[in-house]
Fold this protein.
Amino acid sequence: MSHSDLLPRAEPARLRRVALRMAAASMLTCAASAQVQFSIDWKSQSVSRPDSSIAPRLITEADVLQPGPNSAGTQLAPRIVLTGDLLSLQGYSNCVGHVGGTACQIDVDALSGGDDGLFRPNQAHRPRVLFSVDEWASGHPATPLNPPHASVRNQGNPTVPPLGPGVFDACADVYGDMNLPSPPLGPNFTPRNNTLVFDGNGLPSANAFYGPGLGLLEPRNTSAPFPYAGDNLDALEIGTDLAIAPRVYFSLDATFLDRLNQVANSGSAAANNFSSADVLKRTVGTPAVVHFATASQLGLDRLGVGTDDLDALVLAENGDGIYQRSSAPYDWVNGSTDMLVFSVRRGSAIINQPDSLFGAPIQPGDLLLPPIAGGLNQNPAIFISAEALGLRTERGDASKDGDDLDAVDFEEELSRDCNENGIDDSFDIATGASQDTNFNGIPDECEDKVVEYCPCPLGSKPTCTNLDANAGCANSTGVGGRLLSNIQTGGSVSLALDDLVLTASQLPLNVQGMVFMGRSSRPPTTFYDGLRCINLPVLRHATKNSLATGSFALGPGIGALSLARFGASGAISPGDTLFFQTWYRDPTGPCGASANVTSAIKVTFLP
């Protein structure tokens, strides 16, 4: 078997990094989340909380974290994967153990591995915008108050505006956009909603919604006295493993006053001799943190050093570690510049100043680019407006504050796709394509431990017209081969019983075939006359004949058969997810490749 992947950008350095990311992703089952890393702000309750490592360490606002493991249905604290000490932050060791709500001048405001999803003009499958907001966010008033999914509007702050069902959970969550067109998207864009992708604590909120958790503490009620209980997710990186990345890019915190809670920000940037509007770089093997992009290059700090605070960061860096500033949307596509997208914190001097593309007052919920060459002014340009993300704005009203976009990433790989349809689960739920009757962020069809997937619908195999929307690609019989389980007729996914049977049906008569299995899925790729949806490497079970019924079965005893045939590489343990598909000969098949494959089945085994 062989396969190929089309990589999204031409320059060699990025190709290598994307290939590594795809290879890493192929080791995960689609039931698992993408690599999620984040930090929390200095006001969070989890500051000084022991992490969930084997040798626990105390969490700080400078550490890069990953979700904690589940234990008996309760999620443990996040796990530290990169400490602020490795970011060379001055005073880090003295701050370990300080209590959340007491500033210690090591707060990390934004994170990136430099390999974030790349926007291209008019792309069919553009990166999804994943973001978090702070504790004061309430969502745009034009978005539904009660959609059938969690959103910033129904999870945020109910006091801004006064009428709202919010539950103070939004600031520990991660949300995704709702299928935006290609940017730039200005303030006049019709407000879109957003949908929950990762939940702060993985437990039902006051209005019942929840999803895959991050191990953080919720809610964070701003009607209580400062410091507030709960956590605020303050920086986000999905995909690139920052613990092993050659470079980490980040930003530090401002000193100026936050007028909503009447508390000064932590001043970590000034304490480390940088501006809070700079993007910094830490390279593995070097002790120093240096500038990657300065505030002035981004159109910030025009009223003085530290008057703006870069609050969220997306970076697709072209591989040389040196900032080549973009001067117009999409000039980064050929690799000559770097795609650097950012937001600014509430209280920044640039707020309500006109942007250089639309001439619209900048808001803390906007995603910005550096100033546009030949633009209206030398201020940053709005790339994706807050309205497009379903966030509240107060454009032009200096007495009010819009929603603060606190962390962001552009994600090219799916976060979660349990039903294997190539669409993120959260988007399936938000659009009604999947039901979520228990509001747990998992499509109802995935609550079962056996999921049939990989049919051959229109457009999935453009090289040939052997389509079958309900099975694998059509074979010489006129229909597609289908792999089915006996889960509806008494079979189970119990390894102790080992009574699961997988049957390849609708095959040509008297042809040879075999079931093959793997530990991760992949997007459909042409394979003989059909589509393969299992990632390499795969393990091949014994060859069988379809006989006069046009079918053959694997099982019962799949667990025992796999161990006996493949040894340790085929051992199946409780909790393992395996993917199964059938290859079979078809000498007179419609595409002339003399063989085909059935649809596939995903099985999560239990004890």
